[in-house]
Amino acid sequence: MSRTRFTDRTVLVTGAGSGIGRTTALAFAAEGAWVVVAGRRRAALDETVALIEAAGGTALAHTADVSRADDVAALVRAAVDRFGSLDVAVNNAGVFRGGPLPELSEEDWRTLWDVNVTGVFNAMAAEIRRMRTQPGGGAIVNVASNLGAHQQVNGATAYAATKAAVTSLTRGAALEHIREGVRINAVSPGASDTAMSLQPGETEEERAVRMKEQSPLGRVASTEEVAQAVLYLASDDAASLVGTDLVVDGGASL
After folding, report:
1. Residue 225 belongs to a domain
2. Active centre residues (catalytic)
3. Structural domain range at position 225
4. Is the separation of the CB atoms in 55 and 33 below 8 Å?
5. Degrees (nearest 5) of the Cα angle 199, 142, 190?
6. Is residue 250 part of a domain?
7. pTM above 0.90, yes or no
8. pLDDT for residue 55 is more than 60
9. Rounded to whole angstroms, how far apart are CA atoms 87 and 202?
């Protein structure tokens, strides 16, 4: 049975050109949302829009670099100008740079923080400014990670630090803005069916063998499974969840 939890609601998804972001955008559209897909690569965003429209949904592509506050402000304006409101925002854009900390370049360090942390800060600031003016407020879901606040692994220290910061930003902003009608939570995926979970030179088949040993669940999560966690937190079904960090990692961080 089809669900329509987001009919006539405007949903913004950053990092929507591939992976979890694309799957999440498709899932919102399937439940009736008008979806604004954002990212830096226009061709990838256009592919996401085409997939949504082919399934009967409505979407708008808008290029933006979340590390630039002006870009994100323009993105929110574009969403409101096209659809009249901003009801849900999913701050999914992120990058990974790995390796032992002493070998990580300063450029990689800055890139991680510019995109993963400053990007979420910029996005939330623009989204909250709009949502708190609306009678119905809004819901924000940040995509953090099971690495950081929940778990550490070798070779991902810098990345984990940025994602722990996302968890902290989520909790603090949730407390500050719930009385203004803006409800903020996070989803923290573990290894999922995206290129980011592949080790250098590893095939998907080799990853499947590795995950049978490393994950209590015995496999990576599908992007659809992560997307459904995002939709739940954004929906009225989760109306009393404020500042929650929902871990979707098959038990890896237990």
Report:
1. yes
2. 159
3. 10-243
4. no
5. 30
6. no
7. yes
8. yes
9. 39
Pairing between β-strand 138-143 and β-strand 182-189 as defined by DSSP bridges: parallel
The bridge status of strand 88-91 relative to strand 58-63 is unpaired
Query: Number of C-alpha atoms within 13 angstroms, CB side, residue 13?
Result: 31
Alpha-carbon distance 152 to 253, whole Å?
9
Query: 24: closest CA among 196, 229, 185?
Result: 229
Burial level of 62, CB count in 10 A (0-12/13-18/19+)? Answer: buried
- Give the separation between CA 184 and CA 134, rounded to whole angstroms: 15
User: Do residues 14 and 38 lie in contact, with contact meaning Cβ atoms separated by under 8 Å?
Assistant: yes
pLDDT band of 2, cuts 50, 70, 90: low
In a domain, 254, yes or no: no
Residue 2 lies in a domain: no
Q: Is residue 1's pLDDT more than 60?
A: no
The pLDDT confidence band at residue 198, using thresholds 50, 70 and 90, is: confident
Per-residue pLDDT at 19: 96
Q: Which of 44, 48, 45, 42 is nearest to 29 (CA)?
A: 48
Quote the tokens at residue 115.
């995109």
CATH number at 225 reads: 3.40.50.720
Dist CA 168 CA 89 (whole Å): 18
What distance, in Å, lies between the first and last C-alpha atoms of the chain? 34
Type of residue at 232: Y
